[in-house]
Structure formats: C-alpha cells, structure tokens
C-alpha cells in the first residue's frame, strides 16, 4: 500500500530545483526518472508542487511494485489528483521500472551497469535504448542527480538546442552546496566510468 503523505499544498512543496542524491537506491533511480519523464515539456515547479502525489501514485517508487502495474493501476495513476493525466508518461514509467529490474538482474546494480561502459557516449546511447521517454537531456539529468560522472555542463549543453535554465540552475546549486565536489567552473570534466563524489540530500 502506498504510504500516507501530506497534502499537496504549498506547505509541503518539494524544491523545484532538485539536489544530487547520495548513495541512490533503485527506488531513487526510478524517482529521478519519474521526474525526468513528467517534467519534460512542463514547468519543473508544477511537478515539484505535486511530488507527493507522484510518490503515492507510484508506490514510493518501489521498482518491483511499479513494474507489475497493470491496466487498472494505470487508470488509478491517471485518476490521482496532482498527477499529469498523460498516459504515455505513465506507461513509460512502468516500462522504466521493468528496465531497472532487468539491469539489476543483468549487472547486479546500476553502478555496475554504468561502469560496464567505456565512456559517457556509449552509456547514454544504451540508456536511451533501454528506457522510455529518456532522451539526451534526461540521460544527463538522471546521471547527474544520482552522482554519476557526466560531461562538463557548459560544453555539453551547447549540443542540446534551447536555453535549459532549470538544468543550469540545478548545476549551479549543486556546485554551491556545502561539501560539493563540483568545481566552480564546470559540472564535471571526466569520463562516464565510476561514480562522482556525492553531496548530501537537501
């Protein structure tokens, strides 16, 4: 059963600009993917404001539970107040939960999956193949938020059309966070193997 959460009002808002997660669990990976999928094309603040609704609708982002969602569960999610009524994004989330389970079966952990690639480009290509509704921007977002090594933001973002102010703000806030491992002039100038040092959850 999904846990009880506070009402989705301003007093319980999740920050619109998220932080890097320390030692992410599989549920954290799914939660980050849910945000990446649902905030695509809409205001980040809109998704953050109702984040408790997403948490409840997707069973605290328990990967095995969401992977088993059937048609009745899809309809229940779509009827949840606060959740965008976009069926293709709900279906994508279920597919992504199943893909995470497959990675866990195949590699043992998401960390080992990431480490199996020679570089970021190869990893990003595979993630876009495995996961639904996850493109170039979302791959960088998911890996950055879960503490994995990513290309330097300022050079990488030039390859993605658009301004992306929320992504830029997310990177800047991560650099300014206490104990941040990120240098002041770049998100990270390193390859995709291994893990980046992490900053605590906010």
Number of domains: 1
Tally of helical segments: 11
Q: Mean pLDDT, as a whole number?
A: 85
Oligomer: single chain
Describe the structure concisely.
51% of the residues lie in helices and 0% in strands. It is mainly α.
Question: What descriptive keywords fit this protein?
Answer:
11 helices; Endonuclease III, domain 1
Q: Care to describe what's here?
A:
This protein is an all-alpha fold. The chain has a single domain (21-176), classed as Endonuclease III, domain 1 (Orthogonal Bundle). The chain has helices at 26-39, 44-49, 51-57, 63-67, 71-78, 87-107, 110-115, 120-130, 136-145, 153-156, 165-176. Helix 1 packs antiparallel against helix 6 (87-107) and helix 1 (26-39) packs antiparallel against helix 9 (136-145). The radius of gyration is 16 Å and the shape is globular.
Helix and strand layout, with pairings?
Layout: H1 26-39, H2 44-49, H3 51-57, H4 63-67, H5 71-78, H6 87-107, H7 110-115, H8 120-130, H9 136-145, H10 153-156, H11 165-176
Helix pairs in contact: 1-6, 1-9
